[in-house]
């Protein structure tokens, strides 16, 4: 089973963050919510490990 | 006071007849009384009677009420019905189906095939109106009675009072000829979701209520839709927030519309209004008649315990689920399957009373699994919070173009029998390489045999069976039946019972669940496993 990392894991964190913000440009609040939901589901599938996903959910709720 | 029915009947199956108990002067005594002549009560009574236990089944009507209600009967139910003597009738009358398709708006977003393998006598599912299922069970009772099975179904015997003692119960009954009483060592309560027995005993029934209403419109029409389960989320025809189309026998189609929480129930049941919804779905010019309509809400809940001393609860009286997944009647029939052999063994002095605690443990385990699946389906169909709705919609949107999201689309996970993992009756798995699906606690999957017929045909008699596949059988305890089969010649048997093992021995319970399995076993291990499975350890 994998393990969640909360240490830096992105080579270009500013670019990644900017991409996330840009993806929401011009969207209403509802559209943004829907985009976020789709994104979370896509990333969950990419992670592919329920153990890591549960750790991520717990970390996000802290 | 005259005796009043609460609902009209579809079939009059057990007309009232005055019993000798009513003229006995003092309460007649019975080993087992069952209250409730629905599918679970009759199946439990028949199971016991086929094992030689005298049973009296009491129902406040003379047959089964109108309305299709439970229409989906799962493979496991058909296998149990086969053992009880009416599996073939159910399949012959029913509509066989395996495939489900789920649509969002106009687009298909998910499909499933419930029986992707062959080598089973029975199909994954048949659709049949509940009254027919009950009728076939009662006809099986009549055939069993003709062969001497000690069972009696008493119509128009309404329970009006109950005294529960340490060693049995006293029932007060009302009939068209007035009241009488009887006593029983054991009482099985199969008296439905609103169980009067549960009320009389002051027992709780806790769980969740879902804030939604669903309209059933059974329509009679000639149509050439395939015999598949079709479910729409946010259908293009706008007849409801979701919709279901499913075929029943005799050109009847089950149509289900999700209406929401705040509705005017009476207005929604107006036939003109129902026809408007159905017209939108089927399109103009389709001729049909409304056969039966109903609006339902639902709960997911269960009793804390199913056994209360000499009173045992089964079916909807003990647990209730939403209809998505067909886990109501199907799980109730599995209650009957689990309870029958255990109570018979206790009454015959072969097992201690505590064997019945395993009914509680195993069927609560199953009920929790059914409630979990049913609750998840319902949360998807009827999201409870705005955020839950956002994720549900996101899954549906993604499913149109991303295959990973399709298995998350949940319109009901259809009933499969529970595996009794962790049951005190199981002996730890001792078959290295054995398939997971036949581990101790699992219901035996069927298999076509090289010798002809099917495996489950061979596992129908009362008592335990030692299934021997290529192994050397040890000396058996008295009364333990042995079944030697050639797994080498039967690919289904090999795949389902050997896996990568070369030989195996399976100890199989009377309800066709695996109690123990070994690569090799001696007389002592076998006797111990049998003792454990009978609650004697």
UniProtKB/TrEMBL annotation, chain B:
Q: Does the keyword Flavoprotein apply?
A: yes
Q: Name one GO molecular function term.
A: oxidoreductase activity, acting on paired donors, with incorporation or reduction of molecular oxygen, NAD(P)H as one donor, and incorporation of one atom of oxygen
- Which UniProt key words apply to this protein? FAD, Flavoprotein
Highest taxon of the lineage? Bacteria
Matching entries from InterPro entries are given as: FAD-bd (IPR002938), FAD/NAD-bd_sf (IPR036188), RIFMO-like (IPR050641)
Q: Which Pfam families match?
A: FAD_binding_3
Q: Can you give the residue ranges of the FAD-binding domain?
A: 31-373
- So which cofactors does this thing need? FAD
Protein name (database record)? FAD-dependent oxidoreductase
Source species of the chain: Roseicyclus persicicus
